[in-house]
Specification:
4 helices; two-stranded parallel sheet; single chain; 81 residues; alpha+beta
């Protein structure tokens, strides 16, 4: 992903990602009826979120991603506690 980001910043071109439905999305699609309230933690670029919104009957969707591209790598890997 870092390579794609670097290429995109320097050239304006990014590789197209082929998306697929995750097993959890297919499970819910086959077994649950009615509208769903969904929360996705760690949504990154939003490919999975987009797929869920297209395939499921979602009434409310919350996406949470605390990742910060500007933060140094050490803050992401530090343990707290």
């Amino acid at each position: 992903m870092a390579i794609n980001y670097s290429i995109g910043r320097s050239t304006g071109y990014k590789f197209q990602r082929v998306t697929y439905s995750r097993p959890s999305t297919l499970f819910v699609k086959d077994r649950l009826e009615g509208s769903l309230r969904v929360i996705e933690i760690g949504c990154a670029a939003g490919h999975n979120a987009s797929d869920m919104l297209k395939k499921l009957n979602v009434s409310e969707f919350f996406a949470v991603d605390p990742y910060n591209m500007e933060a140094p790598a050490t803050t992401i890997t530090q343990r707290h506690g």
